[in-house]
Protein 1
Amino acid sequence: MTDVVKNLKEIKKSLAAVPEKFNLGRVGYIPPHIIAVSKNHSKDKISVLLESGHRIFGENKVQEAYTKWPELKESYTDIELHLIGPLQSNKAKDAVRLFDVIHSIDREKIASAIAAEIKATGKSLQLYIQINTGEEEQKAGVMPKDADRFIKWCRDELHLPIKGLMCIPPVNEESAFHFALLKKIATRNGLEKLSMGMSSDFETAAGLGASYIRVGTAIFGERNV
Ligand SMILES: *Cc1c(COP(=O)(O)O)cnc(C)c1O
């Protein structure tokens, strides 16, 4: 069986070596938090990580998350659960109830549904806006040219607690360009947090200022879909 605890340790080691690897100098580097992406993985595997002390996890589907996390969150009350996948407005209610952070706000309908649910429940949540940095048709996310306007609308009209931006670079492109673009959009909008980097490119993301990296395969092994 995959040694998830060992894998997580290796990732932390790689993150600690990032300033040296990219010649950043140590000053100012804060290693990103690691979201252990447990989609398609069992509660048993998740529990091993929980027992080792890890508390930050991510899922990409609301429905799948409900099969695992309500119970786990009862046993470990300090879990920080992230929704990193696309969200439909009819799932907004369930999403707000279960998750602590949502990374995939990308259109008015979703933003409004979440705002309504936050208002109804009074739950304190952290939100990220997903940017489609590669401008890919099939991919979720706000187009870069619309980002400033959408961010402002979410804040000013809906008073949403927007903390940062998230992106998923196109598979066949250099991630660094997309991470840098995400940072640029965040900075000019006064947003501090960046959700970027996965198993294949988390070191690059860390070097470019990621606050959260989202790592599945490198921790849990291949997913059986
Ligand atoms: C699945 C997923 C990840 C993790 O991907 P790995 O390559 O397995 O690390 C990260 N972000 C999102 C949005 C995902 O859906």
Protein 2
Amino acid sequence: MRAWVEVRLDLLRENAVAALRAAGGDAGLVPMVKAEAYGLGMKEVVAALRELPAPGQPWAFGVAAVAEGERLRSHGWDGRILVFSPVSPGDYQAAVRARLTLCLSEVAAVERLAAAAREAGLVLPFHLEIDTGMGRAGLDWRTAAEWGHRIASIASGVLRWEGSYTHFHSADEPDLGPADEQWERFGQALDRLPGITPRPLVHAANSGATLRRGGYGGDLVRPGIFLYGGRAGPGAEPAPVVSVRARVVLVKDVPAGSTAGYGATYRASGPERWATLSIGYGDGIARALAAGGGEVIVHGRRVPIIGRISMDMITIDVTSIAGVAVGDIATVIGADGDEWIGIDEVAERCGTISYEVLTRLGSRLPRVYLEREPGDALQG
Ligand SMILES: *Cc1c(COP(=O)(O)O)cnc(C)c1O
């Protein structure tokens, strides 16, 4: 293989257990598997997480689109699937057919779902999002007294109000004050809602709030990035799940003055040895990584990326390492020997977040699923 993504399913499960432990034990787990489980492969991630020993079995899986929920059904998951984004009116019937639980953000959405429930002759569950500062979805926390009763009456007899939730905008920041304030607003809104039996579940916590605030004591937690190895804020460091490897496909000795890459932005100051890796921005490795001082690991040592990243190739300077040969494996993300390049390091160098680093990993990179250390696979 020219380049690939390794996914450690054992460490994925370890992170899920750590998240649940942080949440205090009796919270239900809703792993977020939207965007193909942050680019790692929804089918395999779901297969790994559904095997978690009790009480870790997911209460539901979270997606962002009806089509993602349908795909998850086709992978054989028969349990709850929550769709955590507003969906367009034309998608309600498909959602009902696939038995997806919609998360609703406005009174009109409750009316649409009630109509779909009547048409299907079913009582359908829904979760209601309460906007406490994120702005993109949910009913305004300040006006809960107005919409709460309307929604309860529209739902009566046709819908089951299963959960109420909010979403934090800054739970991964050093200062948790804004998250605490959102939790406070959420509580005020819940207090103004009509009494419903059975009491709807309450949930709020993404990875940051799960790891750093114990999920605020909600009934469910909804971690995403932490499961996949992304830091969820200061001190919330998961086990690394993802590695990205690429082959050395060319090694050459160049004289001083040789230039590398589009724009010839790099020039050798003396005789150097360069290696070409078979991976590029067409595989989702951002061009910004080179400008940000990006490095890769070869033979257990860090070496710099030189020049601009091409669509299919990256050039590195291996002058400092003896014996690099065609066929060797370079690590763009992950560990090799004592060195390690995490997704948060790569994100920082690219001026982005770990979420984007993962979801950008291209379809040209096969995903290789592992249950343990790859052993001596890196010896070439
Ligand atoms: C994506 C998402 C999450 C997970 O967030 P992380 O920061 O990845 O843990 C939780 N809840 C909702 C509503 C989301 O959209």
